[in-house]
Amino acid sequence: MLNAQSLFALNISPVLSLSLSNNEDTVLVQGEMGSAKSALLPMLGERLPNHRQIYLDCNNMGVEDMFVPNFKTIDAQGVVSMVPNELLGLHLQQPVILMIDEYGKGGEGLKNGLTRIMNEHEVNGYKLHKDSYVFATTNLGVEGLGDLIKAHQRNRVTVVQMRKATPEEFITYGVNVNLNPSVLGWVREFPNCLDSCVDNANPDENPYAYHPRSTRKAFVTQRSLSRASRWVDRADMLDDQTLTAALIGTIGERAALDMAAFIQLAAELPKLAQIKDTPMDAKVPQNSSAVCMVVFRLLGALERDWVDQCIDYVERLSKEAQFLFFNTAREKDYKHRDTILRNAKYGRWALKNNASFTADKV
Asked: Measured on CA atoms in the order 231, 237, 243, 246, is the torsion positive or negative?
């Protein structure tokens, strides 16, 4: 269910601006896996070149790793002071950017031990340089990855939700970092690959993205797409089967098969923009696999404002492809079912093809 925090979720640019605007308070960034939360550290480092970047991974630390005893003698009596781990940056005499990654997955002792450095930039008498920045990251609780933050811990930070990049934002990012053009083209043609699990109650509604109730072992994230790009860059060193196997283990079965087919059949596929703008002139693939790709791509990318154009184009496909499209659209869990079944052009198609069923009533 969407709440106010979800509705006001920020993309990475305003999260970066928010973090830079106030170094007295710690921003805890919540976001879905693989959505570039960790990229905030080098991005902040670019803006603050005189600050030392420090990465602290709560997955690989316990409270016992924060400090070690330093034994001293005072008037023949032994005392102990606790010396901080250098990972905290408390010993440095310079400004730092301290990133506390995977905070919600840390042990309870570690999370409690970090609260003071997050709240006051100080612990056990050691204080960060006054110009230092501290921020933390964690996954969304709805993802089911074990991120738990108690009320008293949450009350010491400012929690903001960072949303996934839109396909357009990811493509822009990909162009800037030279991701493989075929991968970027696939994202453009299959924009639902970057949907949020928060938006889909049914895990079968989106075969590409992560969902906590799904059994798929690999899936599409911004991170896994970047990894897929590196495999596609090496396509000339691999045969088709080997490349597809690598993609299955990187972005999941359905995404890998669609991407492999897209790479091979890209020349045959019409662009979505062509179908939206000139559905009667857009290219119709001759290859049956390419036709299936077009059908599933239309179902995934469809929006209310171009249903007419979509149906115009679908009617130019083979009868088998038309029934594949409309039978899938009739499924009760399909998100645009009502929009299509209420469309006048669908009604005419159903009458023409004797394909009107009781289940069409909405």
From this structure: negative
User: Rounded distance, CA 319 to CA 213, Å?
Assistant: 35
Interior/surface letters 250-266, b for 16+ CB within 10 angstroms, e for the rest: bbbbbbbbbbbbbbebe
- Are 101 and 55 within 8 A, CB to CB? yes
The residue type found at 324 is L
Radius of gyration in angstroms for the set of CA atoms belonging to the chain, rounded to a whole number: 26
d(CA 157, CA 137): 11
216: left (phi over 0), alpha (psi -120 to 50) or beta: beta
Q: Which two tokens stand for residue 144?
A: 């089911």
Query: DSSP assignment of 18-29, as one string?
Result: HHHH-SSS-EEE
What does the block give as tokens for 251? 């972005």
For 298-334, write each residue's pLDDT tens digit: 888 888 999 999 999 999 999 999 998 998 888 877 8
Of 99, 112, 194, 105, the residue nearest 141 (C-alpha): 105
Report which DSSP code applies to 164.
P
Take residue 322 and report the two structure tokens written for it: 């038309």
- Alpha-carbon distance of 157 to 28, in angstroms, equals 6
pLDDT in tens, 78-102: 788 788 888 888 888 899 999 999 9
Q: pTM of the full predicted structure?
A: 0.74
User: Using CA atoms, how far apart are residues 256 and 249, in angstroms rounded to an integer?
Assistant: 8
Structure tokens at 266: 């890209």
SS3 61: coil
pLDDT for position 2: 62
